[in-house]
Amino acid sequence: MQKKRILFVVKTCFVFLIAVKLAGQTALIDQPGVSLISRTTGHAIHSYFDICPESPDGTRVLYFSFELNAPGYGKVIVARKDGSGARVVGERIYSNNHDSVRQMWIDDSTVAYSSESKFETYVVNLNTKEMRTLPGEMRNYSHALNKGLTVKSKSINSIDVAMVVVMNLESATLDTLFNTNDLAAVHPAGEELIDNKYANLKHPKWSPDGKHLMVKLKANDKTGNRSIAKSIIIADADGTNLLYISDKSNHAMWISNNEYIAYDGNDDVVIYNIEDRTERYLWKNAKGVHGSTNADNTLFITDTFDWPITKRGSLILFDIIEQSYSVIAEMNMPAQSYEDRVHPHPVWSRDFKRIYFNSEDDGERKVYAYDIPDSILTSVSQTYNPDKIKLEAFPNPFNASTNIIVELMEKSNGTLQIYDTTGSVVATLYNGEFEKGINSINWSPNKASNIPVSSGVYFCRYISSENNYSKSLKMLLLK
Q1: Percent of the chain scoring above 90 in pLDDT
Q2: What are 107-164's pLDDT values in tens digits?
Q3: Rounded to 5 degrees, what are φ and ψ at 186?
Q4: 9, 324 Cβ separation under 8 angstroms
């Protein structure tokens, strides 16, 4: 494995050097694996890095086509997966040049898009062409719940206060979950958040199973001069159990029902577990802006501005297992402000074999796709298997002690720790080499704990230091 890893890194560096050498010489459409998706005249962009433009069955794509300038008026387009057969959906509408009108799939025959100025969402049946108008600008949709999420402001004590709102698609109603005043009880900024017009909520997202949601809190103090929060807030689906997680919050994205990733502000990508409130690094110094992982978290895609070449953008694919990366596409990116320049917003296809992204490589903003080579997909699937780790405890619930079983399909270095519900490490039971097969480790709370242990819920967590995979187990201590 070590020899294979060295060869892969050497090969990756070679590909990287070739990409640098050819920068500015190879048109995006001529680069290996890249194809043009938006074939309509004028500028076009897909929605956002957390909204897949592919239909649930993976046969069609959805994007926004501008009539003239971006931002400006245009129409939502549905086309085949290869970009052919484009047809207009819905009415002429105004769009920004960042995440367009948040067009998204509800099911294989239904799409939705929003009007920011009217604070409305339009749901269109592609078969009957029937269109429903719903209150609220839908920012995220849960297939598990058939509900959307949005944010809005409401005057409280003569101050506009931001709030997270659920959009009920069946009843066409809005239900407020919580507002920034409610966060004062759980956030370190405390009362600074109460009736604060400079406290905003952004990017609400349902967890994959629809049981939780996250939202970013961005706030200055009440003078507007000092930043007091750039935080991720977690809540249950009904808005209860509010939880402040971290101020490492740039472009957060769910990767499972209880974990999400985010850039920490220093190019490091961190994984957060909302259940046991622990964090670990996915990748350090991962140059990029908008990042996300594939289904089993073995590949990480992100976009870069002005790196590795000034005035050029790149898509970087990280192989988490091999701990290597490659530049899979590089594109023209004119020197503009962060808000005005095109954002690639790479997003995975439904089967995680393709990546959609925006580019302004030929002077017009267009939607492209990169098809991941089978060699990469095969390599990853052969070297990674979540079932390599099984974690159990007997007895559970327990009293004086419990035996924790870590079962591995191959020998691996790792760490086994116990956490309480606040995320504090209670005990490190083992750090070193785990044998193939069953590894049994006893935990007697009164004998092997860093802090006093009382009755309640604890989490046992195994982390493999070789492939960065982890597994957690909830345990109940009774005294």
Answers
A1: 61
A2: 999 999 999 889 999 999 999 999 999 999 999 999 999 999 999 999 888 889 999 9
A3: -120, -15
A4: yes
pLDDT of residue 437: 85
Which CATH number describes the domain made up of 386-477? Answer: 2.60.40.2550
pLDDT confidence of residue 10: 37
Q: What's the predicted TM-score (pTM) here? A: 0.80
Topology (CATH) of 2-383 = Methylamine Dehydrogenase; Chain H (2.130.10)
Three-state DSSP at 345 gives coil
Contacts 24+ apart (CB under 8 A), 129-135: 131/90, 131/91, 132/172, 134/167, 134/169, 134/172, 135/167, 135/172, 135/173, 135/174
Higher pLDDT, residue 420 or 245: 245
Structural domain boundaries in the chain: 2-383, 386-477
Cis ω for the linkage preceding 395 (within 30 of 0): yes
CA distances from 1 to 9, 298, 373, 382 (A): 12, 16, 21, 12
Q: What angle do CA 175, 177, 182 make, to 5 degrees?
A: 145
In the numeric block, which tokens belong to residue 245? 């997680």
Question: Facing residues of 463 across strands?
Answer: 415, 470
